[in-house]
Amino acid sequence: MSPEGYGAGARLFHKIALSGRATPEMFFDIEKAMHGRDCADATDGAHVFVSGLARSGTTLLMRMLHDTGAFASLTYRDMPLVMAPNFWRGISGAFQKSMARRERAHGDGLEVDYDSPEALEEVFWRTYCGPDYIGADKLCPMIADDDVIAEFRLYVALILKRYAASRYLSKNNNSILRLSSILSAFPNATILIPFREPADQAKSLLRQHKQFTKTHAEDVFSRQYMGWLAHHEFGGDQRRLVFDGADASVYGDPGQLSYWLDLWIDAYAYLMRQADALGDQLVFFSYERFTDAPEEVSARLFDRLDLEPTAVLEVRERRKDDTEKSSFERLDIAHKLYQTMTERSRSTLS
Fold it and tell me: C-alpha 130: how far from its chain's center?
């Protein structure tokens, strides 16, 4: 949901509730004191975490799973006190509003309202681990300590309590930076890694970067809002995902397509290494296979996640781009990696 329509009061409230680390942590302390004692233990739950490079179909996949009714997720109605969902529900019930669905800020045809699930849990990780993975110009992999993992388990349990559910569903692109920590917190979880044809995904990332850069130049609050949620995928505060400890400046200009194709290669090569280390709890999900045969692929996914079959979201026709793909540098490397992931996806969801 775009913050561009927020009034002055709403902007100030979001700034107070989300900026920095002390205030979100204070609200989480309030939430734990008021609602933490009677939470069911979420440790053994068959939770699902959707995470991949942006523009890979993560939102589409999350919506399809959320529509089964089997999961709880944070929604825009939990904003801005996402660290205290039960407390906020209690005090905001008298003035909650409804809103007609409207296209989200990405301009990609996906519509949202206050009850749409979204990637809001990142506020937790920024609050407790921000310096461990957020740099001035990059984001890096991290490993949470035992205390943070225990707090994350409780946070998920509080979200489950708020929505009276037993399974948690997360969509968060930054989760790829902490996969082992997520599985330490929830050993029975499944992590879904959507991926897309590399040139198409790189071009989509570049389009979004240009669009959000323009938006952030015109509206400072929109840039701050994404920063509070640690969403640095693109725009005026874009920060490179770096998996090898390098300086982010070596990766070139995000205004060039080659930057995003290199990011695609780096991110998914890293995720393949993570899958080799962590096992079959990481499931690669091909965007192209799904859009070509949505009913077949969704049925296999539902079976893999022990879900009852349900209606499949209407899949929009994939954007066609006539740009000559063979001219992209390193595209042969990307395509080999893409084929390997496609085969792994096919064998996992067979």
Answer: 16
- Alpha carbon 20 to its chain centroid, in Å, reads 21
Contact 287, 55 (CB under 8 A): no
The CATH architecture of the domain made up of 3-348 is: 3-Layer(aba) Sandwich (3.40)
> Domains of the chain: which residue ranges?
3-348
Task: Fill in the DSSP letter of residue 168.
Answer: B
Both tokens of 173, joined, read: 């692109």
Which element (helix H / strand E) includes 335? helix 331-348
Per run of 10 residues, the mean pLDDT along the chain (length 350 residues) is 73 93 97 94 97 92 92 93 95 63 49 73 97 96 98 98 96 96 98 96 95 94 94 94 88 93 96 94 95 92 90 56 57 94 90
| CA-closest candidate to residue 171, choices 133, 126, 121 | 121
Q: Give dist(CA 194, CA 61) in Å, integer.
A: 8
Do residues 140 and 147 lie in contact, with contact meaning Cβ atoms separated by under 8 Å?
A: no
